[in-house]
Amino acid sequence: MHYIHSNDIIQPTVGRMVVEAPYVAEHRKAGQFIILLVDEFGERLPLTIADADKEKGTITLIYQIVGTTTAKLAAMKAGESLYGIAGPLGHPTEIKKYGTVACVGGGIGIAPLHPISKAMKEAGNRVINILGARTENLFILEKEMTAIGDECAICTDDGSKGEKGFVTNVLSGFMAKEKIDLVVAIGPIPMMKAVSELTKKDGIHTFVSLNSVMIDGTGMCGGCRVTVGGETKFTCVDGPEFDGHLVDFDSLGKRLNTYREEETESYEQYKHKCRLDGVEIK
Amino acid sequence: MSAKTPRHKMPEQKPEERIKNFNEVPLGYTAEMAIAEAERCLQCKKPACVEGCPVNVRIPEFIKEVAEGNFLKAIEVIKGTNSLPAVCGRVCPQESQCEAKCVLGKKFEPVAIGKIEGFVADYEREKEHLPAPEIKTKNGKKVAIIGSGPAGLTVAGELAKLGYSITVYEALHTAGGVLVYGIPEFRLPKKIVSYEIEALAKMGVEFVTNRVVGLSETLADVMQRFDAAFVATGAGLPSFLNIPGEDLQGVYSANEYLTRVNLMKAYKFPEYDTPVIKGRSVGVFGAGNVAMDSARTAIRLGSKDVHLVYRRSRDEMPARGEEIHHAEEEGLIFDLLCNPVKFTGDENGRLCGVECVRMELGEPDDSGRRRPVEIKGSEFTIDIDVAIIAIGNGSNPILQKTAPDLKCNKWGNILADPETMRTSVKGVFAGGDIVTGAATVIQAMGAGRKAAKGIDDYLTSGEW
Predict the structure, then answer these.
(1) B363 in the Ramachandran plot: left (φ > 0), alpha (ψ -120 to 50) or beta?
(2) Beta bridge partner(s), residue A183
(3) A233-237 contacts at long range (C-beta below 8 A, 24 or more positions apart)
(4) Per-residue pLDDT tens digits for B99-116
(5) Of the residues A12, B83, B97, B148, which has the maximum number of CB atoms within 10 A of its CB?
(6) Do B349 and A254 make contact, defined as CB atoms within 8 angstroms?
(7) Residue B283: phi, psi to the nearest 5?
(8) Best interface-test mutation with A: which of B210, B211, B285, B434 has the largest number of A CBs within 10 A?
(9) How far is the C-alpha of B350 from the C-alpha of B250, rounded, in Å?
């Protein structure tokens, strides 16, 4: 069981949890993820590690409330415990001095980007953070990200925060001005696809971090398979980071929709149960 | 009662009933039936059945106790060499092991050794417990076991009894390995596995779940804290068909499909949160026990047509006879001598069919089985919205990747001495599917017994 230190709603549909996981806190590296179980009825949910505190033995998780599991997660209170946390899983990001690194984050993807951006800066890179969201109240970690980059550009689709437009517009602005050696893009599939298409033209090496449907996280189920450069790869053990120029985003996007009906059914039932129990739904 | 008495049939749930639930199919012998079946045993002086058993259970001896109504004594005899009899009674391929060698089988039907074993194990668990095994005073030596499947659990039990401090590392959140994620509830109720694991915990075995050795911590890191280690990480790397369309929604590896249903309890969705697609029409590819388990699971989830697509003929199907028989009773459609060529999907990426080609058997291949050959122009399509690929598993490579000194063969299986189970790394032993490739529960347990002895010998003598 993993004791919850705090669990706050930081935007209307985004939560931040600090939870005890000493083994993960001790070993985790930028780019790695965990799989959690909220309770014994829960599904195994992969989440990237947003931050960790070795001394306290805690990790920080940032999640968007989109269905049953994340709603259950949001309903957990400080002092309660999560049923299980496995990790750290996956390959860490290859952190080294590349020169200029553009860290592009979209929506909830800014959470996993944060430790990578920080590590890239510490490795002596010039770091440009380009952060986007659909709208202002989906925007997270502005303060944290601004603090670590050499530059931080913000945009929203509707212009409610920062520049109006997509991260690709901002990125191409930077590409026109200076030489970028590496792009790290984490966010929704269409965003990662658009960034990869943009950087491919100029041959800028681009990592993307994928969040596939996953169960065990050890290569046993193969549910997280993704086509990269025509080959089948498992996100959990071969990734989660891949060369964005080689990923088949269309196939991945479709696979992510596999359980849409079931997810809706489960979430409706969860909300119904909450109403019966008089529990507030976040 | 004599040998000529026909073998006592196990009472079972009727097919039309059981396809609507996940309860165990056999209902178990009554005490009277177990005694009557045990009385059929000829008590051979040189029992061939014992040789047929990978862990050499003293079969005539325990059967004699059953015949005399001494069920607890019977289980004591079995547990002398087999620590998981309730599991083995249910999942061992007795027809090709102990029962294949039974002398009675030459003229009549063999003694139902597996069913009697299951009966006494259940009796001990449910009615009258054996006293806890005697545990020697702690000897101060620590052994790490990596993987909590049948091989790992066997080593844990054997060494705990000898006074070793045991820590078992398991990657998933529940211990048991393939016994909990792979084999379905209707064949092996999970309460049986958890009973065995609790028994080990009571003996002082520590279970660390959610821990993958070979990632943050390597085997070498673990060895710094332990005097010896046993690697039993299993065959957990699913093979795919490598045909077009395998990325469509609805195409599963059997591992994923069974893990969703068994470990994550998707058959109780939405009470449990993990979903699984309950296809209208399902295709299962392969013909081993895992394929049968997948097909029978799909039938229970309410799929109307479940097809088993296999490129060879019925005679070459590697599954246990009982599983094939049960599956057939439950309405499985056998599309034999058929090979899948490609999966087809709709515009949303959902699976809607599989294109197959018919096969005929040619000359025998390396495995001795007749090689299937395509019949030109025989292509046809089966409409399916779920595909389950059950054509086998490779070795799980995670631990080996960060253990360069651990010698493996070209398939990634760890090389271990067949008697001592020693690997190329001092203090490290290995056994089960990670060494042999995918095999049976009882073979993994056999390897576990050898490894336990090998580890005890090493830690007692200090010689490598």
Answers:
(1) beta
(2) A102, A206
(3) A235/A90, A235/A210, A235/A211, A236/A46, A236/A89, A236/A90, A236/A212, A237/A90, A237/B398
(4) 999 999 999 999 999 999
(5) B148
(6) yes
(7) -115, 130
(8) B210
(9) 6
Q: Going by C-beta distance under 8 Å and a sequence separation of 6 or more, which residues neighbour residue B224?
A: none
Q: Residue B198 contacts by C-beta under 8 Å, 6 or more apart in sequence?
A: none
Q: Which of B172, B212, B247 sits opposite A255 (nearest CB)?
A: B247
Q: Which domains does chain B have, with CATH numbers?
A: 15-127 (1.10.1060.10), 142-236+394-461 (3.50.50.60), 240-391 (3.50.50.60)
Residues of B in contact with A266 (CB under 8 A): 269-270, 273, 275
Q: Which residue of chain B has the CA closest to A219?
A: B237
- Tell me the torsion sign for CA atoms B182, B183, B185, B188: negative
Q: CB–CB of A43/B274 below 8 Å?
A: yes
Q: Helix A249-256 to helix A189-202 angle, to the nearest 10 degrees? A: 170
Q: What is the pLDDT of residues B253-263, one digit of tens each?
A: 999 999 999 99
Q: Does the pLDDT of residue A112 top 80, yes or no?
A: yes
Q: From the CA of B418, how many Å to the nearest CA of chain A? A: 26
pTM above 0.90, yes or no: yes
SS3 content of chain B, % helix, strand, coil (to 5): 35, 20, 45
Structure tokens at B36: 């009557």
Other CB atoms within a 10 A radius of the CB of residue B461 amount to 8
How many A-B residue pairs are in contact by the CB < 8 A criterion?
A: 124
Nearest one of B359, B364, B367, B371 to B335, comparing CA atoms: B359
pLDDT digits 0-9 by tens, B272-316: 999 999 999 999 999 999 999 999 999 999 999 999 999 999 988
Burial per residue of B346-368, b for 16 or more beta-carbon CB atoms within 10 angstroms, e otherwise = eeebbbbbbbbbbbebeeeeeee
Best of A2, A220, A255 to disrupt the B interface by mutation (most B CBs within 10 Å)?
Answer: A220
Closest by Cα among B268, B137, B125, B265 to B191:
B125
Amino acid at B246: E
The two three-digit tokens of residue A37, written as one number: 């179980």
Q: In sequence order, what are the residues at sequence separation of 6 or more whose Cβ sits closer than 8 angstroms to the Cβ of residue B262?
A: B180, B181, B182, B183, B184, B185, B190
Length of chain A: 282
Residue A255 and residue A213 in contact, taking contact as beta carbons nearer than 8 Å: yes
Q: Spell out the domains of chain A, with CATH numbers in brackets.
A: 2-89 (2.40.30.10), 100-256 (3.40.50.80)
| Burial class for B200, CB neighbours closer than 10 Å (0-12, 13-18, 19+) | buried
CA dist A2 and A36 (Å) reads: 10
- Where does residue B320 fall: left (phi above 0), alpha (psi -120 to 50 degrees), or beta otherwise? beta
